[in-house]
Amino acid sequence: MNTARVPRAVIFGSPGHQRRALLLPGFVYISGQTDCPTGCWRMAALRRLRQSACAGMAVSRLHTSSCALAKQHYKMLVVGGGTGGISMSARMKRMLGAENVAVVESSEMHYYQPIWTLVGAGAKTLTSSGRSTASVMPSGVKWVKSKVQEINPDTNTVRTDDGNEISYEYLIVALGLQIHFEKIKGLPEGFEHPKIGSNYTIETVEKTWKSLQDFKEGNAVFSFPNTPVKCAGAPQKIMYLSDAYLRKTGKRDKANVIYNTSLPVLFGVKKYADRLWEIVKQRDLQVNLRQNLIEVRADKREAVFENLDKPGETNVLEYEMLHVTPPMGPNLVVKGSPLADEAGWLDVNKDDLQHNRYPNVFGIGDCTNLPTSKTGAAVAAQTAILNRTIGKVLKNEKPDRKYDGYTSCPLVTSYNTVVLAEFDYNGQPLETFPINQAKERRLMYYMKADVMPHLYWHGLLRGLWGGPGPYRKLMHLGMK
After folding, report:
1. Is 231 a catalytic residue?
2. Which residues lie closer than 8 Å to 387 by C-beta, 6 or more apart?
3. Are 367 and 344 in contact, with CB atoms under 8 Å apart?
4. Which of 36, 40, 67, 231 is catalytic?
5. How far is CA 35 from each of CA 2, 29, 32, 40, rounded to the nearest angstrom?
6. Nearest residue to 175 (alpha-carbon basis) of 203, 141, 201, 149
7. pLDDT tens-digit readout, 190-238
């Protein structure tokens, strides 16, 4: 047996030589059967050490990985592996080639969050909403399994929490927003008690369903915070579904269904708000405007609301069930970077999604300051615009397509009906179908529950669905 002593490194030989590494204090002995003399072994070992420094074949004794701190560079770097990040990475793969694209995302699981409204009402299972990130990541694209810690657009670099520095030629920011349960006194620790849930996180959505099932009699309370939120219709969707469940189970007569919202309106688009007010009255639901949840006393089952029109005035509600929509805010990495506007959101041009100060940076989704409702439907429409914008920028041409602010909110009003709200930057209806979408319809419910998830996994995330714009023109015979 020939052996060669190589200090402070582990060298894994080729399968043909069938070598194995024997670790001793301070040294590694490589042994195996070979015709190569001892000197040949030593030279081959050193040569392999140099060649494999960043290929994972050599591990330094002084570092976890010899390539852990190596600087990486990509033509297109996408930070965030949510809806916007995965969709755009699929499009960038087709435009630039997989080897030129990388995605920074730490989560091992990817969730279709719009379905959590139905999970919280028992109409869908939580497992049906998630798939592994590996299964949705475009093949060949580099997946950096880390969290973004810092973005420096002046040096075109991103630093991750494990010490890596990644440089880029172009950057797409798709980091989403931040949820802040802690801004409500008594949360998130209050979720350890029964009778309280939230459809906004993986940890709390099933608690909503449990509290609904366990309801006996009293107040069922639903909140909407005094901050921007993603899917602004979701806080009242669960109210309508809870009302339907209580009616189905014969408990509605013993329940007071209360929706306390910080907003001055029930919904931001008048056409749909008018219809929703009709539903509220028909079903004897209590809606209180300008009421903001500031404290939860979970041990006493009490929710404290402040009156935003009368500072200092509070109202304490006892609850048998409480659904909390958490305050939300800008992603903290974006907020702490030069990319943010004064409020902390990613500062992009509302027409083409290019950053207002850094022309090689683009944004999409909830992390941006786009003046439209933060929904998955909005992201879908944005992917088509952003793809076009980047294609033009790469050719040193001026972007020629404008995002109209299209967004959509399927307002689930029961276990088989939906009011499908679609509108633009100006809050004007921008409906796909040539019918009155303010009317509750069964067809729209099945679209929400069954068609849209399929479209999400097999269309949007693969970069094949850019919203219903082209179909809208077809449905309206080119008139819209």
Report:
1. yes
2. 88, 91, 95, 463, 466
3. no
4. 231
5. 9, 17, 10, 10
6. 149
7. 999 999 999 999 999 999 999 999 999 999 999 999 999 999 999 999 9
